[in-house]
Amino acid sequence: MPDLLVGKNAIVTGAASGIGQAIALAFLREGAKVLGADRNATGLAETAKQADERHAGSTFVSHTCDVTKRTDVEAMVARAVAELGQLDVMAAIAGVALEHDFVDIEDADWRHVIDVNLHGVYLCDQAAARQMVKQGAGGRIINMSSVNGLMGEEELAAYNTSKGGVTLLTKSAAIDLAKHEITVNCLAPGYIRTPLNAEGIADEEWINEYLKRVPFRRVGEAEEVADCAVFLASDLSRYVTGHPLVVDGGQIAVI
Ligand SMILES: NC(=O)c1ccc[n+]([C@@H]2O[C@H](COP(=O)([O-])OP(=O)(O)OC[C@H]3O[C@@H](n4cnc5c(N)ncnc54)[C@H](O)[C@@H]3O)[C@@H](O)[C@H]2O)c1
Questions:
Q1: Does 201 fall in a domain?
Q2: Helices and strands (H, E) in the chain, number of each type
Q3: pTM recorded for the entire structure
């Protein structure tokens, strides 16, 4: 029985789907109690079902919320503390992607991507950090960046900008929170098989061309990102902070 997170309580946003769902399930596998948050209640119910099937006896609390709203995010942290006891880990994973050529981006689309991917992470990190500082027992914050937070990619200006912001938000928060023994790191995945990428993966010609950029010559699986989140949530990473952990089959090693 894996036990890297026994005794830890975690919030995972984006827990209704893809990588967030895989992280919630991996945290449960390792013995954590998890509050899974998402705006998609149906997806959360599916995660709760999988938690029951795979990790009987584990504690998974479903919480519907919009990470772009401060009141929602503060209520999420308050509920985690009320139902789980205290907060040890915040995994801010919820995100969206919209593709446009730069000259065609509409303001509303730009704002939406920045709002969810960057402002939402800021709100989650700050609410978690305030709670962790109050508890006085350190903590772990894990943000979702991307390889697109370390380099550009065509037709993804808003997404790249949001993820670049998350990479620097991570480093900035890590500096300020070190005195409280709170580590702040981010995940920087490459191309991972999730509903977000279903269309790209289904387009055989496109994906084969894309995979020429990836030394492993395959897409990553959500569970492969989730196992890295387990490391960042666990005591194994106690001296790691401000770090973007790249999970990309070698994609950006090529550049
Ligand atoms: N799939 C990839 O290749 C990949 C690569 C790098 C980074 N990422 C990042 O990983 C994260 C998860 O992506 P995924 O591929 O699992 O996508 P996904 O679409 O499967 O999951 C994203 C989840 O975020 C939730 N969400 C979106 N906006 C929200 C909001 N305002 N409030 C609460 N929840 C909200 C959605 O409901 C969904 O459940 C995203 O931040 C994405 O940018 C994904």
A1: no
A2: 9, 9
A3: 0.99
